[in-house]
Specification:
It contains 9 helices and 8 strands. The chain is α+β, with helices and mostly antiparallel strands and about 220 residues long. A hairpin with a 3-residue loop joins strand 3 and strand 4. It binds adenosine-2'-5'-diphosphate (A2P). Adenosine-2'-5'-diphosphate binds next to strand 2 and helix 9.
């Protein structure tokens, strides 16, 4: 009989170490609380509730998915295209179990997802699969995506609305980044202690952090 090939994981990524995970969970929940109370946010509440008179508790609205991580390659146990090639790269094998510092530069909130925008270093980009930014993007949006720097999709999913899959966070982030580089400027801008908050229409919010938050993380594969 042929020796069985080792199974591929569900995905690879950088996993926040547990102390950092706790800290990020707390501070991002604080941000949601702040956002919830802003008049600017209340003005657009119907994009979250479907009803302008209804209130929303954002902390309840988003369900946290742990462990918090920044996905590099979604392998789907080998079913995803390019998964095997990714796993076989020397840099991927050598990096498993090694630590790095992820730099969180912004936060996104949409009616679907809540996420942290990660800025990757050139070294981290070596683990970023070619074409990963484009996976699952509708063809109509591709020109905008192609104009963004490689690694633009890098993020940590902090929470999803009921019934929404985590993969949506990266798509929401790209949509926001495309809008930011386009001619349409943010509709509302508010200076908060944490940074500059922009409203991008259709319930999409972006907080550009005044100071990037550095998070210790470990590169690893993950299987359920
Ligand atoms: P993300 O990286 O945006 O958080 P799930 O729990 O749905 O099986 O997903 C496991 C992880 O893999 C999640 O982190 C998720 O999204 C990511 N993921 C799921 N599907 C895809 C996909 N098609 N492309 C890229 N990443 C994916």
């Amino acid at each position: 009989a042929q020796p069985k090939e080792p199974a591929l994981p569900l995905f690879y990524g950088w996993f926040l170490i547990s102390e950092v995970e706790e800290k990020i969970k707390c501070s991002t929940m604080e941000f949601l609380k702040t956002l919830d109370t802003l008049e600017a946010f209340k003005k657009h509440i119907s994009e979250f509730t479907g009803d302008a008179d209804k209130e929303v508790d954002l902390e309840q609205y988003f369900q946290t998915k742990t462990p918090l991580h920044c996905t590099t390659e979604f392998c789907d146990y080998g079913k995803a295209e390019g998964a095997k090639e990714y796993a076989e790269q020397q840099v991927v094998k050598d990096s498993c179990g090694t630590g790095t510092e992820l730099s969180v530069v912004g936060l996104i909130v949409t009616p679907r997802t809540f996420g942290a925008h990660v800025s990757l270093t050139p070294e981290q980009l070596l683990l970023w699969p070619t074409g990963a930014d484009k996976v699952g993007i509708p063809p109509a949006d591709l020109p905008g995506v192609e104009a963004l720097p490689v690694g633009s999709r890098a993020h940590v999913t902090l929470g999803c609305a009921a019934g929404v899959e985590a993969v949506q966070t990266g798509i929401d982030l790209l949509e926001i980044l495309i809008l930011q580089q386009g001619e349409e400027k943010a509709v509302t801008v508010e200076e908060l202690e944490l940074g500059t908050l922009s409203y991008m229409g259709q319930g999409r919010w972006y907080l550009a952090l005044r100071e990037p938050v550095t998070c210790d993380a470990i590169f690893s594969s993950f299987s359920e």
